[in-house]
Amino acid sequence: MVKFLLLALAFGLARVHAEIDGKWVTVAIAADNVKKIEEGRPLRAYLRELNCKESCDRLELTFYFKENGQCTKTKLTGNRQEDGKYNAQYDGDNTFEPVYITPEFIIFANQNVDRTGLTTNMIYVFGKGQPLTPEQYEKIEEFAKVQNIPRENIQDILATDNCPK
């Protein structure tokens, strides 16, 4: 039985690894504190690539953020914790995990605790560069509700992404 469970875990990690690795762009973003994701703020991240390392014990994110209209490329590494969530330092302490994965669409839940202790619940939606379908938007709304994020705080940011590809 233990061998079966280990095999199932290994298969699951390999599947997640294969589905997450690669080129992605931020399609939408949402937060319970919408000021944290406004244009020009560091948490409004324009993703370019996700890479699982060490059997997905580390997750590398390559993204841009804009400040004063200038795009700044950043690489962040999240380390998987015992609960399966990743933790990384960027504009505070971030705990994040993929909560929904398809080959063309990923939703990450993130909790950011900034230097003042303010907690912000967020959702990042990554895709392959296509606008959201109505079904995908419904899925985002479901996860936003779980994170106590008002529907009106969901922002489609694909059109504002003018950083290098």
Describe the structure in brief.
With 165 residues, the protein is an alpha+beta fold. 19% of the residues lie in helices and 44% in strands. The protein has a ten-stranded antiparallel beta sheet with strand order 1-3-4-5-6-7-8-9-2-10.
What's the helix count? 2
| SSE ordering | HEEEEEEEEEHE
Low-confidence stretches: 1-15
Largest sheet: 10 strands, antiparallel
Tell me which CATH architecture applies here. Answer: Beta Barrel
Number of domains: 1
Walk across the major sheet and give the strand order.
1-3-4-5-6-7-8-9-2-10
Give Rg in angstroms. Answer: 16 Å
CATH fold group: Lipocalin
Average pLDDT figure: 90
Secondary structure elements and pairings:
Blueprint: H1 2-20, E1 22-23, E2 25-31, E3 46-53, E4 58-67, E5 70-80, E6 86-89, E7 93-102, E8 105-113, E9 119-127, H2 134-146, E10 155-156
Antiparallel strand pairs: 1-3, 2-9, 2-10, 3-4, 4-5, 5-6, 6-7, 7-8, 8-9
What characteristics describe this protein?
alpha+beta; Lipocalin; ten-stranded antiparallel β-sheet; disordered N terminus; Lipocalin/cytosolic fatty-acid binding domain-containing protein; signal
Describe the structure.
Helices cover 19% and strands 44% of the residues. The protein has 165 residues and is of the alpha+beta class. The chain is built from 2 helices and 10 strands, in the order αβββββββββαβ. It has helices spanning 2-20, 134-146, and strands at residues 22-23, 25-31, 46-53, 58-67, 70-80, 86-89, 93-102, 105-113, 119-127, 155-156. A hairpin with a 4-residue loop joins β3 (46-53) and β4 (58-67). It has one domain (2-160): Beta Barrel (Lipocalin).
